[in-house]
Design goal:
The chain has 9 helices and 6 strands. The protein has about 210 residues and is of the alpha+beta class. Helix 1 links the parallel strand 1 and strand 2. Helix 1 crosses helix 5, helix 1 crosses helix 9 and helix 2 crosses helix 3. The longest helix is centred in the middle third of the chain and has 17 residues. The relative contact order is 0.21.
């Protein structure tokens, strides 16, 4: 049985879910390498260079509602032991290249580590994880070679593969992230509890 977790790397709920998954993995060491992080871009048609973060969400939900959501998510992140600082996030990036970077890592434990690094870079540090130079720095810090990263980013198939994965997940019923799937079937979405995650991992490690 296989556990897959669909995420986008600018989704705050995915940031929280990654931390909770890490905690659950410590409780269930047999499943340490099992979760597979699957890309699901929430805004796949976003400009390649990204857009102004504050303006995007003000336009989508209004300035006051955006402030309320920011405060709520910062509080929830703190409860998970995470730093989330919206005041540092200037840009909402297109996450296509960041997902491509994760795809380059075949070992699942290492891929999970990179996912965590990318989420933290965006939410805690305010780094632009759509920027090629930033991604090269993050990728090489995890053992990837810069020339391989550039080659992957320049591939004509990278965007097509992301769209294909998204279409497949949509057919499975994924409408948002994070979404948790066991053997292709959605078993949870949002932020599962630690006991719920342990059950998923126990099943997936069987």
């Amino acid at each position: 049985m296989e556990l897959e977790i669909a995420i986008d790397l600018v989704c705050p709920w995915c940031y929280l879910a990654k931390a909770r998954v890490d905690k659950a993995l410590l409780m269930n060491s047999a499943a340490r390498n099992l979760p597979r992080w699957v890309p699901y871009q929430l805004t796949p048609d976003l400009a390649t260079d990204g857009v102004d973060h504050a303006a995007f969400f003000a336009d989508r939900v209004g300035k006051e509602e955006a402030k309320r959501i920011y405060a709520m998510m910062e509080k929830k992140a703190a409860e998970e032991g995470l730093k989330l600082d919206y005041s540092r996030i200037a840009k909402l990036p297109n996450t296509g290249k960041a997902h491509t970077l994760v795809k380059m890592v075949s070992d699942r434990e290492e891929a999970g580590r990179l996912v965590g690094r990318l989420l933290g870079a965006h939410f805690a540090e305010g780094l632009d994880i759509g920027n090629t130079a930033t991604l090269i720095e993050l990728g090489t810090s995890q053992g990837l070679r810069s020339e391989d990263i550039l080659r992957a980013f320049s591939s004509d198939t990278a965007i097509a593969e992301l769209k294909e994965v998204r279409a497949t997940l949509t057919k499975r019923g994924v409408k948002g992230v994070p979404a948790f799937m066991v053997d292709g079937q959605i078993v949870a979405s949002g932020l599962p509890t630690l006991p719920e995650l342990s059950i998923m991992m126990s099943g997936a490690s069987a």
